[in-house]
Amino acid sequence: MHVPDGFIDAPTSAVTGVVAAGALAVSLRGARRELGEERTAPLAGLVAAFIFAVQMLNFPVAAGTSGHLLGGALAAILVGPYTGVLCVSVVLLMQGVLFADGGLTALGVNITDMALVTTVVSYAVFRGLLAVLPRKRRSVTVASFVAALVSVPAAAVAFTLIYAIGGTTDVSIGKVATAMIGVHVLIGIGEAVITALTVGAVIAVRPDLVHGARGLRQRLRLRVNGELVDAPEPAAVPAAARTSRRTVWLTGLVASLVLAGFVSFYASANPDGLEKVAHDKGIDTKAKEHASADSPLADYGVKDVSDARLSGGLAGVIGVGVTVVAGSAVFWAVRRRRGADVSPANPGL
């Protein structure tokens, strides 16, 4: 759903840029709390890289149409909503600057739609479901599925509203809404499956690393002499018996590299939901060439590498590497800033 340059007029793009900047500022502040624990900061950079990799895997959803992960729900559930907004924003920035995917003048639109809306909506649905579901790990997976499913058509609605305000072509909003929401409900199913499988896999080995799963365990109560009393806490699992954070991080990185460097070659070549709707409804008649169209990595291929498989694979590996480095740098910087804020000189912050 990467919006290219020319779909939305300049004033509306500027307003969404301000909205995106405000969202990032709030997210940076909120992420200081979420990244305060040592276990979260390394995972956040990996989550950004994983989202980049999986977004290269377009899957067919209808005749001539494909979809790909947006990632807002996955990021919010794994590392928290504020950090999740930053994760998806880092991915969008890397894609726009290096790979000519998503317009640079439309970066505010894309961050607002793909990072902010998906994360806020999905996390609200996720928390709402956890409030009524049994407090079990399985409930986290179920809530992840539903939250991700809802987040994609929510993003489609958000795009439709932005287009209604600042679209550059004269197309019926009703037609745009019907087409966008219809195809993105189908894409949402794929998003939900990917999100639930990923969250479930991490919970299976290290539930303490999943932001959305923390604090779910209920204290067991026993009836003793007619009164309910708290049962003793079960013995903690020895650190040596758990999968280490480093192992989880390396496994995730290898998976991201394999997905982007190899599996992506077999992704669907059909246009994604927005591209298909834009072409069918005439939204793309005023689309502009990307400012980074001459980038050595434009269109997810390495310039001057003639073999398509090798070119795409190298581009994917480079993208994962750049994203994990950039994302980790951002999140470590935010964490260090939090450390400075809570230093002895500032005990009240």
Automatic annotation (TrEMBL):
GO terms for cellular component: plasma membrane. Keywords: Cell membrane, Membrane, Transmembrane, Transmembrane helix, Transport. It is a multi-pass membrane protein. Residues 246-336 form the PDGLE domain. Coiled coil: none annotated. Its main location: membrane. One of its GO terms (biological process) is transition metal ion transport. Pfam families: CbiM, PDGLE. InterPro entries: CbiM/NikMN (IPR002751), PDGLE_dom (IPR025937). The chain crosses the membrane at residues 40-57, 69-94, 114-133, 145-165, 177-205, 248-267, 313-334. It is found in: Cell membrane. Gene3D superfamilies: 1.10.1760.20. The keyword Transport applies. The keyword Cell inner membrane does not apply. This is Cobalt ABC transporter permease. It comes from Streptomyces misionensis.
